[in-house]
Amino acid sequence: MDIIISCNTGKPIYEQITSQIKAMIMRGELKTGDPIPSMRALAKSLHVSVITVQRAYEDLQRDGFIETTVGRGSFVSARNKDFYQEEQQRRAEAHLQEAADIGRACGIPVEKLAELLRLFYEGEEV
């Protein structure tokens, strides 16, 4: 499992682990039922504390991405993708609400906001 830890992001290590594992699941690199390294093995390979990896695994389990069975280990959960997409959609909605509020307050036409969203979505420069 290729996880890259950076000390230069302001993001805690456990969050870096969590977000990278979520991304691997969403991209299909990790599939339902695939085993996840043990906490000790991952901590050793990343040169971090087992407690840090434990926190990441607890977050992944709470969010429905992995299931842990005593004596068997941790595995990718079946219910993760829909949950994650729903979570990300809520985040996008919050940002869109903020953009709509700014646009309304400043008199930016909704057509202009929609065009900007399309350009950003397609990765074009504005």
Structure write-up:
The longest helix is centred in the C-terminal third of the chain and has 27 residues, at 80-106. It is elongated and about 60 Å long. By secondary structure, the chain is mostly helical. The protein has 5 helices and 3 strands. Helix content is 60%, strand content 8%. Strands 1-3-2 form a 3-stranded antiparallel sheet.
Which helices and strands, and how do they pair?
Layout (H helix, E strand, L loop, with lengths): L12 H14 L8 E2 L2 H8 L3 H13 L3 E4 L3 E4 L3 H27 L3 H13 L4
Antiparallel strand pairs: 1-3, 2-3
Helix pairs in contact: 1-3, 2-3
What brief labels describe this structure?
single chain, mainly alpha
Brief digest:
The chain is mainly alpha-helical. It has helices at residues 13-26, 39-46, 50-62, 80-106, 110-122; strands at 35-36, 66-69, 73-76. It starts with 12 loop residues before the first helix and ends with a helix.
